[in-house]
Amino acid sequence: MKTAGPARDFRGTRRGFLRASLWLIAPLALPLDLIPAAVWARPPDEPGGPTIDVRDKGARGDGSHDDTAAIQAAIDALPASGGTVTIPDGNYMVDASRPLELRSNMRLQMTPAATLRAIANDLDRSYMIKVWRADNVQIIGGRIVGERAGHRGTTGEWGYGINIQASNNVSVVGTHISDCWGDGIWIGGLGKRASVVVSTNVTLDHVVSTNNRRQGLSIGPVRGVNVLHSTFSNTNGTKPQAGIDIEPQGQGPASDITFSDCTITGNQGSGLEMSKNVSGVVLKRCEVRGNNGYGVLAGGGANQITITDNVIADNGLVGVAMAATASDVRITGNTLTGNSARYLRRMVSSLSSLRASDRAHNLRVDQAARNITVSGNRFQP
Question: CA 20 to 30 Å from 320, out of 182, 291, 343, 373?
Fold first, then answer.
């Protein structure tokens, strides 16, 4: 069934759609006890090869010594055939101006009490961990803490915790990322549209990305990303400030992306945004709650989207919004409740009067959106 709400025609860019729709107002004060990265998340298979402890290369983990060179030395000491670098308990300082560069066929194994902490810098762009043009890479456990609190500059929005580009078969399991100047995690491609090399077969499992400045997770050109049992929360500082933003724009396509059993909450922007060149996205069994913007927003030509069996609640703007250029979307079996609350509380004096229009404030489909199927959703006042 094609369903169109009473919305106006919001053509054009994502920013134009945001401006034309319900406006953003002050954030809710939410208790946001983060879901920790589960230590019982099943890690990928062992890579084989030697195991090198970063302490054997001179890393101290004392919270003051710059351990960047020692950790990189352990990585570089692995043979091309692969192996494991272990980081034991400790507070390891990392200079994000010369990031840790992971290699093919390796595992970076951190204990739950191992923290990689960025040294403050003044750069617009920096990286703590880079996985570029690499295959068969695993990042397991530990904590990655950015330097947003001590950042010495005021410009830029590209300070990354983990940056994965043009790589294949990469897994991040049970890792906690926080306080980055830009994105907690970026997954994308390298090169321009005609020659872009996309990342393929990337898995995030039991990951927490919280209190980052730009996004919890950004996705550029990719083919095959699976995100499960992960939390993206409290993004704040510079727009778009989403929990998750799939934003390949003109660089190239992003396709075949699944989010399952995830929590997206308390972000200053929207929970999940999708822009042009995005297709084949599945959001299932997730909780998208208490974000300042939309719960889920598809615009800019996003297509082939499935949104099913989720709880999408208490978001500042519409729970699920499909812009004019969205197409081939299934929105089924979701619970949508309490969305648009910030806008509505400014417009009416009694929340009891909202019940008749509850559906419109929880689910909005532009009249020009094509092939939108809506069924089996529960709209609760």
Answer: 182
Instruction: Dig out the tokens for 35 from the structure.
Output: 């879901």
Range of the domain at 221: 14-380
Q: How far apart are CA 207 and CA 225, in angstroms?
A: 14
In this structure, is residue 113 part of a structural domain? yes
Buried b (16+ CB within 10 A) or exposed e, 26-43: ebeeeeeebbebeeebee
Please indicate, yes or no, if residue 207 is contained in any of the structural domains: yes
β-bridge mates for residue 371, sequence order = none
> CA-to-CA distance for 230 and 208, rounded, in angstroms?
6
Whole-angstrom Cα distance, residue 143 to residue 125?
A: 21
Alpha-carbon span 254 to 303, nearest angstrom: 11
Q: Is residue 1 part of a domain?
A: no
Q: Which residues of 101-117 are buried (b: 16+ CB within 10 A; e: fewer)?
A: ebbbbbbbbbbeebbbb
Considering its fold, how many domains does the chain have in total?
Answer: 1
Instruction: Tell me the CATH number at 334.
Output: 2.160.20.10
- In 3D, which of 292, 248, 306, 296 has the Cα closest to residue 272? 296
Tell me which amino acid residue 194 is. Answer: A
The C-alpha atoms of residue 247 and residue 97 are separated, in whole angstroms, by: 25
pLDDT averaged per 10 residues in sequence order, the chain, 381 residues:
37 43 33 37 79 98 98 98 97 98 98 98 97 98 98 96 98 98 98 93 98 98 98 98 96 97 98 96 98 94 96 96 93 96 55 52 91 94 67
Q: How far apart are CA 314 and CA 316, in angstroms?
A: 6
Q: Is residue 9 part of a domain?
A: no
Which residues share a beta bridge with 130? Answer: 101, 163
Hey, what are 349's tokens?
A: 């004096």
**Contact call for residues 234 and 267 (beta carbons, < 8 A):** yes
